[in-house]
Design goal:
heterodimer, A: Ubiquitin-like (UB roll), about 35% helix
């Protein structure tokens, strides 16, 4: 099964043409929403199967692969080609030549940005350069950092697009509760996490969080919920390991 | 290579534009129609009350935040909104200091002393209003009413009291569009409130579950008890309560199911007040009572997480039993 978001009808049509007459491959149109690409949601959307806590996809009869991995597996098995390059999306409102590029693993991000038209790396003062996407990517401190095998994109945000940091108490607007793809209560568990009330956070299923960041995106109080949750999850895991 | 100073804050790197201040501004915009109706009917009297409450709200917020050594958050708009709501909960003929004291109690005690915005269990505006309602019998200075010269048609009884005493009622459509003798400023025109509520739905600040549950419960129950459901819908503070007070973020349940239960509970209590008890303040009391049940409602309506499909949940229960 090939999952494609419905806002890419060209892609759906093109693939459908190629697989015409085959009954072992099927295109599954997916709703355009974040985080559609997470494994458990792909399985649920494509097969309707529930994904219980801790279950591995293979146990459910599924293997979920993104396009890049699928192509790399093909090249590795058919052409004996090792994983030396990958397709990286370079974007940002001020990048002169954004696009999808085949980039060798190990290429410094500074070099990638230069190739995409950013003449002087020094001009990026006060910008944010992200290894990955806008929701879960990692902001870089040093542009000598290389493209690695799981670098999906390089995103350059100008200062005016960098989200503000200050936050206030939760006002229970419930937008995160409405949006959470795991049906958690991010407002509640992040408040527990902030207060280091780990047992309460666990009782409200904090460990199921996939850290997609959507709660933090919608938060009207600008609370860094996913950071609070991430930190609490690490503490809980530490305790669990100590207990073993 | 010379490195530029980059910003390296944590993900997500983009955030929605919708902030607390935007939402509060939208609710104030939604209240513009009813404020205009109040000014049309009561002119200067309405204006004095509105100004008194807004000013008191701002002052109270600043004083309490300073005393508690917390940053002043006046620009999030929540205190001003509470002030505006308190003003609308009173009749325009109320003396200004009564409404101002209600605002002070609502913002100062109902919100700030309860921990500030987000931690208050009870709707601050209703908290202030009900405090005055309960205190007024003991303090005569709270009970002064103006008798505006422009207003000759205002009778002493509000439509709700008239209804309970079996007096002849204005037509339901008159109550719906705008009725000068309605009582509180917010009760003058359900139509104006509905316009604002439509905007709040459009902006996704309020969800349909609570208001629909309240209105449907009141409609069905009053019909069953042989009262005129339309008069009950459009008289009194039902519309303000259902669309603006019970939908308050902080003091309502988190999930859709919880919001439905919350709304039905409020509807039941309102009908109880209207048919069996003195009806004035019934909507306010009903919402405040249900506010107290919100933590319980949240607990019993907890939805299973995505990783906890129903079968798995039952398995774990069975094995732990």
């Amino acid at each position: 099964m090939i999952g494609i978001e419905v806002n890419k009808p060209d892609a759906i049509e093109a693939i459908n043409k190629i697989i015409e007459g085959r009954d072992d491959i099927e295109v599954v149109p997916l709703a355009v929403k974040y985080p559609q690409g997470f494994k458990s949601h792909m399985i649920k959307a494509a097969t309707g199967r529930d994904v219980p806590r801790g279950a591995r996809s293979a146990e459910l009869g599924c293997i979920v692969r993104n396009v890049g991995t699928t192509v790399a597996s093909y090249e590795a098995t058919v052409y004996d080609k090792p994983l030396i390059e990958r397709i990286v999306t370079v974007s940002g409102p001020k990048v002169p030549n954004p696009g999808n590029y085949v980039i060798r693993i190990g290429t410094p991000i500074a070099h990638v940005l230069k190739e995409c038209g950013i003449e002087e790396i020094e001009e990026l003062e006060g910008h944010k350069v992200i290894n990955g996407g806008p929701m879960t990517g990692l902001a870089q401190l040093d542009l000598n950092a290389p493209v690695v095998k799981n670098t999906t994109g390089v995103l350059v945000l100008p200062p005016e697009m960098i989200a503000e940091e200050g936050y206030t108490d939760c006002v229970r607007c419930d937008k995160c509760v409405e949006m959470c793809p795991i049906y958690l209560y991010p407002s509640k568990i992040s408040t527990f996490a902030e207060a280091a009330l780990f047992e309460e956070a666990e009782a409200w299923d904090i460990m199921d969080c996939i850290e997609c960041g959507i709660c933090t995106y919608v938060c009207v109080a600008n609370r860094p919920m996913v950071q609070m949750i991430r930190r609490a999850k690490q503490e809980i895991q530490k305790k669990q390991r100590a207990a073993k | 290579m010379e490195q530029p100073q980059l910003v390296s804050t944590s993900s997500p790197h983009l955030k929605s534009d919708m902030k607390i201040s935007t939402a509060m501004r939208d609710v104030m915009l939604a209240l513009v129609p009813i404020v205009l109706v109040a000014l049309y009917f009561y002119r200067g009297y309405a204006l004095i009350l509105l100004v008194a409450c807004l000013a008191t709200a701002a002052l109270t917020e600043v004083i309490f935040r300073k005393l508690m050594k917390k940053p002043v958050t006046l620009n999030d708009g929540s205190a001003l909104l509470t002030g505006l709501f308190v003003a609308l909960l009173f009749s325009a003929t109320t003396v200004w200091w009564t409404a101002a004291i209600a605002t002070f109690i609502g913002v100062g005690i109902g919100k700030e002393l309860m921990g500030g915005l987000g931690w208050n269990r009870f709707n601050p505006a209703l908290f202030g209003y009900v405090a005055i309602f309960l205190l007024a019998p003991y303090f005569t200075f709270l009970n002064i009413d103006y008798t505006p010269w422009e207003v000759s048609v205002v009778s002493q009884a509000t439509p709700l009291a008239m209804m309970q005493q079996g007096m002849e009622m204005p037509a339901w459509w008159e109550l719906f569009v705008g009725f000068q003798g309605a009582g509180a400023m917010a009760e003058l025109s359900p139509l104006a409130l509905l316009l604002g509520a439509a905007y709040l739905f459009y902006r996704k600040h309020i969800y349909w579950q609570t208001p629909v549950a309240i209105l449907a419960t009141v409609f069905v129950l009053t019909l069953l008890f042989g009262a005129n459901p339309l008069l009950h819908l459009f008289a009194g503070g039902l519309f303000l309560g259902a669309f603006y007070m019970a939908t308050d973020w902080v003091t309502s349940p988190m999930t859709d199911k919880g919001k439905l239960i919350f709304g039905i509970g409020i509807g039941l209590l309102i009908v109880l007040f209207r048919l069996g008890l003195p009806p004035t303040g019934g909507v306010a009391f009903s919402i405040l009572i249900m506010n107290a049940f919100v933590p319980l409602i949240d607990k019993v309506t907890k939805r299973p997480s995505f990783s906890e499909p129903k079968a798995a949940a039952q398995d774990s229960k069975a094995s732990s039993a």
